[in-house]
């Protein structure tokens, strides 16, 4: 959610920090700031609002000379977004500056204790406590490293911290506990960042910090220590993400680019895992015996990843002939879940850093369950804490609204269903073959849908002026409706709800009146007739229906509905993989027509690392 960048080396730090923060803009933020150490003192600039304001206020960093610095984009959690609450926070002496992601849980108590010692606080943040605490410890020991170690034994909560001190102008200190932070090894200096995207212009050699680790960087190298201050050897990873992959590549928005990347993403997520018609999950370390002995199966996730879980429930239950419970991570963690040894918890997360999902994972792990995660960001916290990880290989997803991550998560879950079903003996060879062939055909079918965006744009214009839109569907179409509705509301700000169509008569239909817009999803063949009845039902109350169905049912649907979007036919379980594309595009074009900030919708952030 918040972003951190830090640099120490031979170059001017401020332009590097600003560039890194720009790469992190997609994460969502409401203020930004940098602190640079030059001529033996700290220079700090902070601004509310867009990063551009900070760049202008510092003449692209030229006003802050020095080759040691830290930068931050803040998403307010404690105290409103303003220049004072923005990071970096500076100690009373003016010598120490701190940037922080996470939450210091005991900050109220610490603030009172420091106030009793004469410290004054100017911000409403929890982070300022860290700066003043460091000041206090540094005042008595005179060594910044020692002060940091005392500080981490005093604060409670989650933190990724970047710390500089003007008495040590060649040293950057980083600490991590339950908030992501990575180290970058460059040729003319070294870096810290909360997200690899901030670094790839400068270095591709990175190491991920673990909980409790403390790193000291200078221009020549990085030393890392564990909780007991023993040196730690860090394994370096080479990031081979294409720089272009983290840029817009000619599209007006990242979201549109990422929608169009889906055929490639699906191909990458599946093709390498299907050999000679068989699913091979080399990255899964479960033995056939362990798979056959799985007890209960849970899928745990948030937001769109949870919607993937909803589709997964239908498909896994079909392939495994056993109950699959899908849970919102934020509920699961507090539900005293009945999960234990032998059970499997499938955790789904694009970022691999979602705090609720992480907490649910830890809860399940504590109770002895096996954790299998489906994650996009390699080396992320969720990936590292799981027993098994299946990466989605979707590449960096920059737009806040997820698209290609959703699709690839679903593809990986379907592969997992086939793989388990085969070993458990619950999926017939016909079905297995049909799904595998269907999956291999998906990228080309997706290209077909993406070749006709104009039709969807025209449909979007009809709905763009609405204030409330309903989505209805049954079974897999219901699971898909949930995602279509979320996409629409998060980027267009139109109120929208998705309902299981059979539930309409139990209450919701009272909301349908003359002109009420309804998106009817009627892809799922076995229930197509039921979907048609629901279309008739809402039309009879005056609803304006937009329908999504398969090519095969186009004519029949067009006899009743004026605007019909279609997708090619595929195996039933794979229909949401195709159906989501028109719904993503519908949301995108409606938001475009309404002039919304599509890649950075208000109040939302890409990676939700707070509760
Ligand atoms: C919606 C969206 C969110 C995320 C949710 C979980 O477009 O992106 O609902 O799906 O915040 O995030 P991850 O998958 O990173 O755990």
Describe the protein in words.
With 611 residues, the chain is of the alpha/beta class. The termini are close together. It folds into three domains: 3-240, 4-Layer Sandwich (Glutamine Phosphoribosylpyrophosphate, subunit 1, domain 1); 245-449, Rossmann fold (3-Layer(aba) Sandwich); 453-593, 3-Layer(aba) Sandwich (Rossmann fold). Strand 16 and strand 17 form a beta hairpin. Strands 3-2-4-1-10-9-11-15 form an eight-stranded antiparallel sheet, with helices on one face. A seven-stranded antiparallel sheet has the order 5-6-7-8-12-13-14. The longest helix has 22 residues, at 429-450. Residues 302-305, 349-351, 354, 357, 401-402, 486, 490, 607-608 line the site of fructose -6-phosphate (F6R).
Short description:
36% of the residues lie in helices and 23% in strands. The protein is α/β, with parallel strands linked by helices. The longest helix has 22 residues, at 429-450.
Largest sheet: 8 strands, antiparallel
Number of helices: 19
Instruction: Give the uncertain stretches in residue-range form.
Output: none
Spatial strand order of the main sheet: 3-2-4-1-10-9-11-15
Oligomer status = single chain
Shape: globular
Give the CATH H-level superfamily of the largest domain.
Aminohydrolase, N-terminal nucleophile (Ntn) domain
Which architecture of the largest domain per CATH? 4-Layer Sandwich
Distance from first to last alpha carbon: 11 Å
Percent of residues in beta strands? 15-25%
Percent of residues in helices comes to: 25-40%
- Average per-residue pLDDT, rounded, comes to 94
Number of domains: 3
Task: Give the bound compounds.
Answer: fructose -6-phosphate
Q: What's the β-strand tally?
A: 27
Class derived from helix and strand content: alpha/beta
CATH class of the largest domain: Alpha Beta
